[in-house]
């Protein structure tokens, strides 16, 4: 390849990563922005916040249930086209909700949006594994995940500001506009990229019998899902220990978001330092267990608690791209379905751990909640260590 072709290829890679990062940014923002809009939405639809919460639950439920099936589909048709269709669908969904006449119609549209997002996220990472050079997989996935991190972190704030300044429809219209922009850029960029259509090479559900896939899949679901669950309940710990109010809790957990972004950006460097994604995941899970345990069990000053939150976020931010790289590489032609199943498993763990741990935190028993977290994190870390040992034995 000539130097001009190399430069053109690198430019195409950067453009593709920008489109994918933009896509997952608006998906992440759309998923979390409703936390700042429950009251305005209640007024707009003439109901209470309990009914409005169905806009959140319906989206999450549709995503979790449909992700493996849509991942199966993505392994059998052109991923670029499927992603573009999903982006356009997500944009239409946002406009539809903004002008929905009833809550029931809005909930139905959120289900449709959940289906679209179940395509966008795993397909984006499957595309990276197919068109980006292998040595750059972890760093590329980290860069795209950084887009989702920003969406999750900034989504509620942007939604709150836009709702106050313009009205409750503005956040939905913003996410729709963003997806349309990503769609338009993608129509120029993505068709030029080679993507696999592996209809005859995919194996359906046969990958479930492959321990080299199911082992890291289960490990990631356990440590990542439990780590996110512990973070979702960290505000209650801050409130009980330091008597923080809502505003103080909100400001404090930004330390986690900062750490998450740092972790996303450092995934590639950690991989190079350790020599493989499998080894880097041992470092990540060890840091995750240490930071969660210290935050919940030690009598730390506020600064110490914030440091633990930042380390906790960095571990999850660096671990997710590396684990996704491992799954994408080992699942070969079934990567769309495997990556989508990983998203579902992560949500299942969160839905299981959060209620159990929250019941103990309400009673002020942080140690019991930590034991629940330790079970999930420890099992995930043990599977990660075993997988790294197997990978080392399997390497030539």
TrEMBL record:
Membrane topology reported for the UniProt record: Multi-pass membrane protein
Boundaries of every Major facilitator superfamily (MFS) profile domain copy: 16-396
InterPro entries: MFS (IPR011701), MFS_dom (IPR020846), MFS_Efflux_Transporters (IPR050189), MFS_trans_sf (IPR036259), Tet-R_TetA/multi-R_MdtG-like (IPR001958)
PROSITE patterns xrefs: MFS
Statement: the UniProt record of this protein carries the keyword Membrane: yes
GO molecular function term, any single one: transmembrane transporter activity
PANTHER family: CHLORAMPHENICOL EFFLUX PUMP RV0191, PURINE EFFLUX PUMP PBUE
Protein name: MFS transporter
The organism of origin for this protein: Trinickia dinghuensis
């Amino acid at each position: 390849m000539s130097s001009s072709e190399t430069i053109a290829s690198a430019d195409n890679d950067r453009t593709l990563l920008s489109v994918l990062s933009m896509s997952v940014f608006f998906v992440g923002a759309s998923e979390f922005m409703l936390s700042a809009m429950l009251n305005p939405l209640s007024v707009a639809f003439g109901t209470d916040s309990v009914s409005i919460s169905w806009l959140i639950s319906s989206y999450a439920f549709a995503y979790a249930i449909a992700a493996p099936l849509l991942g199966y589909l993505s392994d059998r048709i052109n991923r670029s086209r499927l992603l573009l269709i999903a982006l356009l669908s997500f944009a239409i969904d946002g406009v539809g909700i903004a002008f929905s006449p009833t809550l029931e119609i809005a909930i139905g549209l959120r289900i449709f949006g959940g289906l679209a997002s179940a395509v966008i996220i795993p397909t984006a990472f499957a595309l990276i594994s197919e068109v980006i050079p292998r040595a750059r997989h972890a760093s590329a996935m980290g860069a795209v995940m950084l887009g989702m991190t920003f969406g999750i972190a900034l989504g509620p704030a942007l939604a709150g500001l836009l709702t106050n300044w313009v009205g409750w429809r503005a956040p939905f219209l913003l996410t729709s506009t963003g997806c349309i922009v990503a769609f338009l850029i993608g129509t120029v960029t993505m068709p030029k990229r080679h993507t696999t259509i592996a209809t005859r090479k995919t194996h359906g559900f046969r990958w479930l019998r492959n321990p080299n896939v199911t082992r890291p899949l289960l490990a990631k679901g356990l440590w990542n899902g439990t780590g996110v669950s512990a973070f979702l309940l960290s505000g209650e710990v801050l409130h009980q220990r330091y008597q923080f109010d809502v505003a103080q809790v909100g400001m404090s957990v930004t330390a986690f978001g900062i750490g998450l972004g740092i972790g996303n950006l450092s995934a590639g460097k950690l991989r190079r330092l350790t020599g493989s994604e499998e080894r880097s995941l041992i470092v990540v899970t060890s840091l995750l267990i240490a930071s969660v345990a210290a935050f919940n069990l030690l009598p730390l000053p506020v600064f110490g608690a914030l440091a633990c939150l930042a380390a906790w976020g960095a571990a999850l931010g660096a671990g997710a791209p590396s684990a996704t790289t491992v799954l994408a590489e080992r699942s070969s032609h079934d990567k769309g379905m495997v990556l989508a199943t990983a998203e579902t498993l992560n949500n299942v763990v969160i839905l299981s751990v959060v209620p159990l741990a929250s019941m103990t935190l309400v009673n002020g028993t942080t140690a019991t909640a930590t034991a629940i977290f330790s079970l999930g994190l420890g099992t995930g870390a043990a599977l990660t260590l075993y997988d790294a040992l197997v990978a080392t034995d399997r390497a030539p």
